[in-house]
């Protein structure tokens, strides 16, 4: 089983270095695998170059898939993190 949700980025700068770094740090708090997908590309949310390589801009929608032992907690907290930071 896995958890999945979509999120629309509202930060005027998109997913630039600072929020990407925060996102990676947040993802690393969980045992679950967290995959962020945008425009046909999927990356491990625990890898900064992958996240920045997605090129997410303001108004873009990303899909987040969480799978693992703590997936329910990770998905809920990660979604809240995105709302507060992106």
From TrEMBL:
InterPro entries given in the database record: HPr (IPR050399), HPr-like (IPR000032), HPr-like_sf (IPR035895)
Annotated transmembrane regions: none
HPr domain: residues covered: 1-86
Keyword Lyase listed: no
Major place of residence: cytoplasm
One Pfam family named in its UniProt record: PTS-HPr
Keyword terms, alphabetized: Cytoplasm, Phosphotransferase system
Compartmental location: Cytoplasm
Domain of life: Bacteria
Claim: Transferase is one of the keywords in the record: no
NCBIfam families named among the record's database cross-references: PTS_HPr_family
Protein name (record): HPr family phosphocarrier protein
């Amino acid at each position: 089983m896995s958890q999945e949700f979509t999120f629309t980025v509202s930060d005027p700068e998109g997913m630039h270095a600072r929020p990407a770094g925060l996102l990676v740090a947040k993802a690393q708090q969980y045992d679950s695998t967290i995959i962020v997908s945008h425009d046909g590309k999927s990356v491990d949310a625990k890898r900064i170059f992958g996240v920045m390589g997605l090129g997410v801009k303001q108004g873009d929608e990303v899909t987040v898939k969480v799978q693992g032992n703590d997936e329910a907690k990770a998905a809920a907290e990660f979604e809240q993190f995105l709302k507060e930071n992106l």
